[in-house]
Amino acid sequence: MLVLDVDGVLTDTRMWFDGTEWRRFYSVRDGVGIKRLIEAGYKVAVITGSKAEDIRARVKSLGIHYLYEGALVKEPAFLKLQDESGLKPDEMAYVGDDIFDIPLLESVAFGATVPEAVDEVLEVASYVTRRPGGCGAVREVCDYIYKYGALASGG
């Protein structure tokens, strides 16, 4: 299973207000990578501290299996994900970029981050993408998992 943060990972952290809601930019390439993993039989989840319609719409449009929003502290959502999916952390990869993501990065089989992540995350991540968050970083991780079967044992 691939588990993703949103702001800074699926987006470049920039937001704009359209008059009624805050909006984010998402990468089409990241979406293709996620769909390719799903088609290969992997499950995908999102755990985010944000709670927004654009995130829900993006998750739905990509066919992502699990969404946990408003999770400022991510461990409870991560435990719930394990219960609901039946998968263990050693069957998961996680991509995060901020201090809230460190416990999950340290728990999973493969913890990745983006180049512009905070220093504390850069120190604990197993892999730092070449592409920035919101601009193909998730696609890079998806391609890595797809190509090398990094999680072939389960998730």
Oligomer: single chain
* Beta-strand content bin: 15-25%
Backbone CA Rg: 14 Å
Specify the number of helices: 6
pLDDT averaged residue by residue: 94
Q: What is the N-to-C order of secondary-structure elements (H for helix, E for strand)?
A: EEEHEHEHEHEHEH
Number of strands: 8
Head-to-tail CA distance between termini: 4 Å
Strand arrangement across the biggest beta sheet: 5-4-1-6-7-8
What is the CATH domain class?
Answer: Alpha Beta
- Summarize the amount of helix as a percent range: 25-40%
Number of domains: 1
Topology:
Layout: E1 2-4, E2 15-17, E3 22-24, H1 28-39, E4 44-47, H2 53-62, E5 66-68, H3 75-85, E6 93-95, H4 102-107, E7 110-113, H5 119-124, E8 127-128, H6 137-148
Parallel strand pairs: 1-4, 1-6, 4-5, 6-7, 7-8
Antiparallel strand pairs: 2-3
Describe this structure as you would to a colleague.
- The protein has 155 residues and is of the alpha/beta class.
- The chain has a single domain, classed as 3-Layer(aba) Sandwich (Rossmann fold).
- It has six helices and eight strands, in the order βββαβαβαβαβαβα.
- The protein has helices spanning 28-39, 53-62, 75-85, 102-107, 119-124, 137-148; strands at residues 2-4, 15-17, 22-24, 44-47, 66-68, 93-95, 110-113, 127-128.
- It has a six-stranded parallel beta sheet, with helices on both faces. A two-stranded antiparallel sheet has the order 2-3.
- A hairpin with a 4-residue loop joins strand 2 (15-17) and strand 3.
- Helix 1 runs parallel beside helix 6 (137-148).
- It is globular and about 45 Å long.
- The model is unreliable at 151-155 (pLDDT under 50).
